[in-house]
Amino acid sequence: MKKTVVTIGEILWDVFPEGKKAGGSSMNVALHLHKQGLNTKFISAIGDDKNGTELIEFLAENNFPIDLIQVNNLPTSTVEVELDEQHQANYKIKEPVAWDSIELSKNLISTVQAADTFVYCSLTCRNEKSKNTVLSLLQYAKLKIFDVNLREPFYTIETLKLLLSKADILKVNEHELLYLKSDLKLSGNTDEQLLKQLSNLYQIEIICLTVGEKGAYVLHHDKLYHHKGYQVKVADTVGAGDSFLATFVSSYLNGYPMDTILDRACKVGAFVASQIGANPVYGDEVFN
User: How confident is the model at residue 19 (pLDDT cuts 50, 70, 90)?
Assistant: First the structure.
């Protein structure tokens, strides 16, 4: 039976100098899960405006269900994306926007209750309304997956502690891990030590650590797995981490061994980094 995953969070337009592309970390994760054959549902909100209408059209073109996308009186989110000399993305995220005000409902609760997995991130929790909706839905989730996804200045260590305490699986990048080391006063000197301390502190079953072109690590049952990554010519890094997470989740839910899960996630993350934008078209050939 097909596994069901619910994601919650940002839907937006990434605005590049050459034009805009549909994005948002949470929507990116949802779209990649959908491409990989999972029954995927996405909770978010758009404004009653042209940008919102165009995002709904984009999702419809990708045969993605839109029934959990709310409409409110805040503007649809847009983010200015600047690429540095290494094609690393920097973001200017406007506030407030529609996804800052996601309403809790009985339908959302029943959807999360029925799903196999619930994926959430810290950026969605920058304002109280969406934060409270996320926290309420976490009470009903079977498997809870937390993507740290730090974007300055939209986080506090207090909120991160709360979100970490709910997680069964955690995804973090190398910069986010350093921030957590500092603010949680972790004493480890290596990635492995830090991951084990995080796992013990918050009783997190699995932690994924992405380290850019150097690949990724996974801590599972106190064993550390490493993949050196795939070398590609980087177009931009927008959405690469989201595609890694989505592939990790889909492969995990489909029962692959951990080494294979990590390999598949690194393959898709590298492919997306080699393409422009967060949601390039691909099929099963990307895993070959």
Answer: confident
- Cβ neighbors of 261 (< 8 A, separation 6 or more) are 218, 248, 251, 252
Q: Are 148 and 125 in contact (CB under 8 A)?
A: no
Q: What does pTM read for this prediction? A: 0.95
The DSSP element (H or E) to which 81 belongs, if any, is strand 77-83
d(CA 138, CA 119): 9
Nearest to 145 by CA among 132, 133, 134, 129: 134
The CATH architecture of the domain made up of 4-280 is 3-Layer(aba) Sandwich (3.40)
Token pair 């890694």: residue: 244
Record the tokens describing residue 101, joined without a space.
């005000």
SS3 62: coil
pLDDT digits 0-9 by tens, 83-97: 776 666 677 888 999
Q: Phi then psi for 67, rounded to 5 degrees?
A: -70, -15
Q: Which two tokens stand for residue 91?
A: 């973001």
Q: Locate the domains of the chain by residue range.
A: 4-280
